[in-house]
Amino acid sequence: MNFELTEVQRDIQKLCRDFAARELIPHAKKWDEHHEWPTEAVKKLAELSLLGVAVPEQWGGAALDNVCYALAMEEISRGCASTGVIMSVNNSLYSDPILKFGTDAQKEKWLKPFASGQKLGCFGLTEPQAGSDAAAQQTVAVKKGDRYVVNGSKNWITNGPKADAIVLFTMTNKDAGHKGITAFVVPTGAKGFKRMAPDKKMGISAAWSCTMYFEDLEIPAEDMLGKEGDGFKVAMSTLDGGRIGIAAQALGIARAAYEEALRYSGERQSFGKYLREHQAIQFMLADMATELDAARLLVLRAALLKDKGVRHSQESAMAKLYASEMASRVANKALQIFGGMGYSKELDAERHVRDARITEIYEGTSEIQRIVISANLLKD
Ligand code: CAA
Predict the structure, then answer these.
(1) Pair 38, 86: CB distance under 8 Å
(2) Confidence class of residue 318 from pLDDT cuts 50, 70 and 90?
(3) Ligand 1 lining (C-beta closer than 6 Å)
(4) Which of 20, 88, 104, 295 has its CB 3.0 to 4.6 Å from that of 245, i.e. a possible disulfide?
(5) What is the pTM of this model?
(6) CATH number of 7-120
(7) Closest C-alpha among 63, 67, 126, 72 to residue 95
(8) Domain ranges of the chain
């Protein structure tokens, strides 16, 4: 067993840490306040090859491993949680299924320009009536000759307002349950594709999401991802990877909260000594640091298994469950250390609490992660 990162992994960690300090941390508060999409930051992520971290060079990516991806996600999210999820959706939810299930022709058309960051992708699984119950899709795709005609809607689609294409899940056989779901890659500019205004959210306000409608949207059959009826497996195996990204995002948010609280505890005095000289604060810091380390180990284990090509549904779910709930605990403790100032919009502590909360919900709620974990524990 080896806890040492490789030189390449340390390099990518440092590159992202420096980038976050320079390009993200100084702006994250303003982007959040104004619900401003971080245009320049996303452009720079592309220049650094961070929009296709684990995608082979042949398909426009950086050809690094998933451990590098997790380390990068932590550092970018430590700087700005919104930028983190924009990066994660393009890497994990859009690029990954095309890499895994796409033909070479599809990779040329739908992966290369996205992994290289010229274009941005999103992932359309969630519907108004199909959130946690992902098999209850109501968006239908009906075959007509060499095309499919799609009608329905998706909501909470992160990157949706900005994306150039979507990995879209549809029902091609309503009587077949999860075996009736089929995935396609669809350009967002297609006729019959309508996007609503960005959602108003509690946190990650700079990462836009939206509802979208499809009215007689025509998709060529050649843009089907995987086989007809394989869509549920495409979605689930994609989420196995996506959950590593969100767990790493949670880790980054928690680290931001912890590091700021640690610094403040050495600046602020009460009862004649620095906050960090009170045992009550020391115990909080000790718990925060321990939980951060535990979450990081879970995240890196899941990423390592993905790199080995081993099924990692349970490990990803454990990483996401623990890291996301840890992020809320740590962000709340950090706010407590800041006291009244933590509740003020002047500092970042309250943003970290808001940003952390979504990591317990998207890409599978904590309850869904517990279902995945227990189903794996009980399957033999
Ligand atoms: N990989 C491959 N196949 C898988 C799989 C995986 N990880 N998980 C399940 N499957 C397969 C099973 O083997 C089974 O196949 P067979 O029928 O051939 O046996 C089939 O899929 C059905 O599996 P289950 O019976 O376990 O499925 P279920 O319906 O009982 O439960 C669930 C599935 C875990 C509850 C699932 O619906 C789920 O994960 N729901 C949450 C959805 C989610 O995470 N949504 C997030 C949306 S994306 C998002 O949030 C984006 C964003 O904004 C950032």
Answers:
(1) yes
(2) very high
(3) 85, 89, 93, 123, 125-126, 132, 134-135, 156, 158, 178, 232-233, 236-237, 239-240, 313, 362-364, 368, 371-372, 375
(4) 88
(5) 0.98
(6) 1.10.540.10
(7) 63
(8) 7-120, 122-229, 232-378
Task: Output the pLDDT for position 1.
Answer: 85
Average pLDDT, the chain: 98
Catalytic residue among 127, 218, 363, 367: 363
- Please name the CATH architecture into which domain 232-378 falls: Up-down Bundle (1.20)
Q: What are phi and psi of 217, to 5 degrees?
A: -75, 125
Q: Give the CA distances from residue 229 to residues 62, 84, 138, 236, 249, in Å, rounded to whole numbers and listed in that order.
A: 32, 32, 14, 13, 32
CATH number assigned to the domain covering 122-229? 2.40.110.10
Burial label, 364 (beta-carbon count in 10 A; 0-12, 13-18, 19+):
buried
Q: What share of the chain has pLDDT > 70, as a percent?
A: 100
Task: State yes or no: is 215 an active-site residue.
Answer: no
